Amino acid sequence: MMRRRHKKSRRGCLECKKRHIKCDETRPRCINCTTVERNCQYSTPGYQSPSETSGSPAPVSVPQPTPAPVSVSAPASVVASDHALPAVSPAAIPMLDFHAFSYAGDMNGKIDIVHMQLFYHYMTNHSVIYPFVDYDGGLKRIIIETALREPFLLHSILAMASRHLSETGSSNTAYYHDLAIELQTHALSLFNSFDVEYFAQSIQRRVPVFLFSAILGFHALCDMLAYRDDAFPSNLARLTGYFRLHRGILAVMDGYWEDLKKTELRILFDNIVPRWYEISDDGGSDCDDIKQRIQDSPNLDDEQREAFAKVLKYLQWVFDAKPDYRGRAHLLCSFAVMIPRPFVDAVEAGKPEALAILAYFYAALHFCRDIWLIGNSGQFLLTSLATHLNQLGPEWSAWLEKPCQMLRESLEEDTLNTQSSATTSDQSLPHGSTTTSTTSLVSTAAMGQDIVISRPSEADARRIAEIHISAMDSNPLLHAQFPTPEGLQALHRFLEAETLDEIRDPVSGVLVARDGPAGPVTGFVKWTSPSHPQDVKLEKGDIVHLEACCRRFLDEYASLAEQAKERSVGDKPCYRLSFVCTDPEYQGRGVGTLLTRTVLELAKEDNLPVYLESTDVAVSIYERLGFRAIDSFEMRIPGRNDAEPSVLYQEVCMVWYPFGQI
């Protein structure tokens, strides 16, 4: 990789030295620390950077690599499918430094047809231009011309185009997704190979930094919305990480805005930004309820009230603009960089008032669901948040009534428009249908419009057995009980036959989740109850006679589990969750949570508790659903490698009570 040569300096800040990264030595805070909001400190307080010792920064001489120049020409204008490409003057197009593109990967250091395809896709497809909403083409022209001068920016827009194809293309989605990651990673590598002083001492050189930072924030938003995790803390950490990264766009340019307005980016500040930030005080009433609650809350100081009020002002503007396509796009582009830092800090700290405001942000995301990278992420995130706040206390449910109502009404409108339900199928569920409360509706919708819960058909028995074994593969007890491939094959045949018998029994406790009404089975749940009886636990049935099984560990586990159940609930009637398994390829989409909630609704109808045994890794998931640990048991089983001849296996006994009763 070619690097710009630079004179080594030992005057960088302490944070950059500690992280072994190049510091631009900008005082009082360097760009690196400003971007990620670290506390920037220098060990040489008396030193002044060149930008501080002169009214106008002196240019920095940067030796350039000298490859053979390649002349690139283009027609004055190119007509796209539905949008004209902004005219780019051939004389304005710089020479490409092809040495900067050399890296290990599929491209083997060359610009190939894939890069050409991505570049053309970026230029001609209007929706890929986010986060810069630019309807007259002027800003896109600037981005293209700047990218042709700076390979790190070019790789970044190629990554954006590839990510768009991975989400909207009809084929090769996995290839384009991986390629987007590869291109963005290399863009960061190229950017980091520069001497930071090259950017720091010229406002013109900050233009590509600004564009690159904004596009990097956009990629972070893509990743944050694409990842689905049942764990609310994980979702919150990703969101605040995105907020801080995207807000770094403003921090990097702090003190340079007026100068930046004199560059070619003046089109952004003179024409586009006024459209983004033109917030009306005479908007709708969607946020009135929470505005009043924020003012009345005794847990907020004046700074927080002021910051929260600004956030609600921006959100109300989004709701007012929700029928307008441009208004939806503006939310995506500007919200993270507009919100005040006290709000981000409060969200990161888990302050309930800030999280309640976040619910309105998720509802606003839902109104942007036609944008390719958002989809149903607003639904998913709102449900995750609602579950968390409900666990903090019933008083917080009232704070979420409005955003939940907005989401519910939107989903009902979608259902009327499509004349079909997005979350149920025509196949009847077993005894006890789910309720239609706001929480239930939001939860079902948020877990994904494509997830359908239904009774399985006989043809699904083999698929359920496959998911059972693949989902339990990481559980050491499975391999202690069936330590050989032959034993696992015998278990697969046994599970298929047993599941087929359960499916044929109309009162058995088994449901499946499908990827769409006619899609494949992605997960299943099995349970027993007074209305869904089953004779014995799996480990005590005919399974002990299978070939290549280790009966000792089957018998020991069955005995310990039954003793724990007797200690926990005795002979009181209850539901008992036996298995909740999700195909590993579909994990992170809320399949297991939705299956479990369906059984909880059935138990609530019968006014019965639900009992289960959980491995350690799943305890937190069940706790978020309202279960509480009451007992446990453990047993020593063989390890899976020579380094661990034996391990202590433990399961936690948990109970869920309807309506919170004990």
From TrEMBL:
Keywords from the named record: Nucleus
Compositional bias of kind Polar residues: 44-55, 416-432
Pfam families reported for this sequence: Acetyltransf_10, Fungal_trans_2, Zn_clus
Family matches, as InterPro entries: Acyl_CoA_acyltransferase, Fun_TF, GNAT_dom, Sterol_Uptake_Regulator, Zn2-C6_fun-type_DNA-bd_sf, Zn2Cys6_DnaBD
Molecular-function annotations in GO: acyltransferase activity, transferring groups other than amino-acyl groups; DNA-binding transcription activator activity, RNA polymerase II-specific; zinc ion binding
Region (Disordered): 44-67, 411-440
Keyword Nucleus carried by entry: yes
N-acetyltransferase domain ranges (all copies): 451-651
Segments forming domain Zn(2)-C6 fungal-type: 12-42
Name of the protein in question: Zn(2)-C6 fungal-type domain-containing protein
Species this protein is from: Cercophora samala
